[in-house]
Design brief:
By secondary structure, the chain is of the alpha+beta class. It contains 3 helices and 9 strands, in the order βααββββββαββ. α1 runs antiparallel to α2. The protein is elongated, with a radius of gyration of 23 Å. Keywords: Membrane, Transmembrane, Transmembrane helix.
């Protein structure tokens, strides 16, 4: 009997907390309010100089508010379709989502390292020197556990690249984190 079920690995970002969503709502509200004022002034037929001044303030303050609204409300989910070799990155804001598909030929290994912000980041490597940045973690233990789970599901190796110039391949059975 042939198994037609597709094997997928999902990495879902946790839902935003209530205060992050409240902040996002405030930023979105300010953006919509500024946009409404701009449309109202345009409807009234105000002078060109007033319209340009208002437009510059709406673009600067509104852009700030829109950016922070997205920052506080957006989530990023990663779905790895093993059978079709596709990495799907899904950006979600409320009921709206946008998918970015990346075609991969073969998964090689997963690594974790210290990034420039001092966090432990993880990469999924494929096709010799190409990689996909997965997630960042606060502790080495959390990054290792994520890499271990992912490597077990994809049946690939783990590389510890936390020390510059001293990369170590990890044996999954007997590795202990400091």
């Amino acid at each position: 009997m042939e198994n037609n079920k597709k094997q997928e690995v999902s990495i879902l970002e946790k839902k935003r907390s209530w205060f992050e969503l409240a902040l996002a709502a405030v930023f979105y509200g300010v953006f919509i309010y500024l946009l409404g004022i701009l449309i109202y002034v345009l409807y009234l037929g105000a002078s060109f100089v007033l319209f340009i001044k208002l437009l510059t303030s709406v673009v600067s303050v509104g852009g700030f508010c829109l950016g922070y609204g997205l920052l506080f409300s957006a989530t990023k989910d990663i779905i790895i379709n093993v059978t079709d070799s596709i990495i799907i990155t899904r950006y979600v804001v409320g009921p709206f989502s946008y998918d970015v598909n990346s075609k991969v030929t073969e998964f090689e290994y997963v690594s974790f390292f210290v990034d420039k912000w001092g966090e432990y980041a993880t990469n999924l490597w494929y096709v010799k020197n190409r990689h996909y940045k997965m997630c960042s973690f606060e502790t080495k233990q959390m990054a290792y556990q994520f890499c271990l789970d992912l490597s077990n599901k994809l049946d690939i190796d783990i590389l510890d690249a936390t020390e510059k110039g001293n990369f170590k391949w990890i044996e999954k059975d007997n590795f202990k984190i400091n």
